[in-house]
Write a structure and sequence with these properties.
The complex is a heterodimer. Chain A is an all-alpha fold. Chain A is about 70% helix and about 0% strand. In chain A, helix 14 packs antiparallel against helix 15 and helix 18 packs across helix 19. By secondary structure, chain B is of the alpha/beta class. Chain B has a 5-stranded parallel β-sheet with strand order 2-1-3-4-5, with helices on both faces. The chains are: A mainly alpha, B alpha/beta. At the A-B interface, helix 2, helix 4 and helix 5 of A face helix 1 and helix 5 of B.
Chain lengths: ~350, ~130
């Protein structure tokens, strides 16, 4: 066979393969659509039962639950996905009534069993359902799934733990950051914010972690969640942490939490010898505190040479009450150093913050 | 034009489960309810049917709930129609915008159907005062 003929054969084979794959995809989609249409056809007459369960009066709800529990297997399998979908749309007693039906039909036991499946899709589906049901008893199994080899499964497990709101999941969630089998910090943050106050002790613990990314994430979440009990830890990070990124997150968090006792540390973080990125964030954080004690330093910064620091400092003076506005007005009269003050005052006037 | 004396509520959400759930609960509470799947349908329904209140999802494809509220408030014929926004917790920042554009109340998803009916009753009572 000549090289040209061999090449033609290879191209033809690739063409056949592409067409076959395309046909297979179309056939699969068609088959899935048909299966879903068949499911919907069976589920549709059961929909009033589902709506009565989630929105009926208590006696109607009980009757609907009993009817759903008594459904034969084909009809149950048709309505089960709709019931599961309701879990994330309702809360309170309504949510509980859906969970009880799923529990009685064995869906939760099956979901727990799925967590050990060899198929990652099954593991993720199991985790998703357990999270949506918010069953504290499933937290331990889901924590184990945080080390799953599949990144999607780890992400679903982290979200599920957040939904459940289990405090014992907080440290394991933080511990995933920066590891070989990590979970994106954004997902961890959302989960921890859902856990809320119960996660604050874990945040404080993580602020002493050897991994900088974990300390930074803990600081960020503490600020977002207004963790007053984390202020001491944040002050320590701001003053002494070896990683600038961690200090920046600590400064931002202290601003968000808004405790006036953070003022001296934030003022120190605006020192001329500090990294510009930290000074910029600290200058803004001082504005969130609105503490008049920071006004002299903010006025110095607003007249300073670095425009990012100066701009944030001028904005913070607007938020520092009468003393801040007086300092800003005085600075605005300075033709050489008052540009940021004039800009901040003009912006504040446009926003109606000052007359 | 209205065909009955019942208080009319328009439920707007791109999620069928939410529409059906809210409709079920409101019908049970004695309201006459119609549904719309998106913002454009909602505007048409408000102008044609004249509901006494609109329950409006914030996050919809095309016109968002905020856009619809703005449109309703800009039209003198619908400016006084009370609006309750349905919003996911993550979109709570939108609530502020919603109030600025004239929404009367908001309910965070996931929600309790019973609580939603209470909110509807409260907003309607306020609007009638």
């Amino acid at each position: 066979m000549t090289p040209a003929a061999a090449l033609s054969l290879v191209i033809a084979a690739i063409g056949v393969l592409v067409v076959a794959l395309a046909l297979l995809t179309v056939a699969r989609r068609w088959s899935n659509r048909r299966r879903e249409a068949r499911r919907l056809a069976v589920a549709e007459p059961l929909r009033p039962l589902l709506l009565t369960l989630v929105a009926g009066e208590p006696d109607e709800t009980d009757a609907a639950a009993a009817a759903l529990v008594a459904l034969d297997r084909p009809r149950w399998r048709a309505i089960e996905p709709d019931l599961e979908a309701m879990l994330v749309k309702v809360r309170g007693e309504t949510h509980e009534s859906v969970v009880r039906v799923l529990e009685q039909r064995g869906s939760l036991a099956r979901a727990l069993h799925r967590l050990t499946s060899r198929d990652p899709v099954q593991r993720a589906r199991g985790a998703e359902l357990l999270g949506a049901c918010r069953r504290e008893g499933a937290a331990e199994d889901l924590v184990e799934l945080l080390a799953d080899p599949d990144p999607e499964v780890r992400t679903v497990a982290a979200r599920a733990l957040g939904r459940i709101g289990s405090p014992r999941a907080a440290l394991p969630l933080l511990a995933t950051i920066g590891t070989r089998t990590d979970v994106p910090p954004r997902i961890v943050a959302t989960a921890l914010l859902r856990i809320g106050v119960a996660a604050h002790p874990a945040l404080v613990t993580a602020m002493s972690d050897p991994e900088a990314l974990r300390r930074a994430t803990a600081a960020e979440i503490a600020g977002l969640d207004g963790a007053v009990t984390a202020v001491d830890g944040l002050l320590r990070l701001l003053a002494h942490d070896e990683a600038v990124e961690v200090r920046i997150r600590a400064a931002r968090a202290l601003g968000r939490i808004g405790m006036p006792r953070s003022t001296p540390a934030l003022v120190a973080a605006t020192g001329d010898e500090q990294p510009v990125a930290l000074r910029t964030v600290a200058a803004r954080a001082l504005g969130e505190l609105g503490d008049p004690a920071a006004v002299p330093r903010l006025a110095e910064l607003a007249a300073g040479p670095d425009h990012r620091v100066a701009s944030n400092a001028a904005g913070s003076l607007v938020r520092s009450g009468g003393a801040g506005l007086a300092a800003l007005s005085a600075l605005a009269d300075d033709p050489e150093r008052g540009a940021h003050a004039r800009e901040a005052l003009a912006t504040a006037r446009l926003r109606g913050l000052v007359p | 034009m209205p065909t009955t004396d019942a208080t009319r509520v328009l439920v707007v959400d791109d999620d069928r489960d939410i529409r059906d759930l809210v409709t079920f609960k409101l019908v049970q509470a004695g309201y006459e309810v119609r549904q719309a799947e998106d913002g454009l349908q909602a505007l048409d329904a408000v102008r044609e049917w004249g509901p006494d209140l609109v329950v409006l999802d914030v996050m919809m494809p095309g016109l968002s709930g905020i856009d619809v509220t703005r449109e309703l408030r800009a039209d003198p014929a619908t400016a006084a129609t009370p609006v309750i926004l349905l919003t996911a917790k993550a979109q709570e920042a939108d609530v502020e915008t919603g109030f600025v554009t004239g929404a009367d109340d908001y309910v965070v998803k996931p929600f309790s159907p019973r609580e939603l009916v209470s909110r509807v009753q409260a907003v309607l009572a306020r609007a009638r005062r």
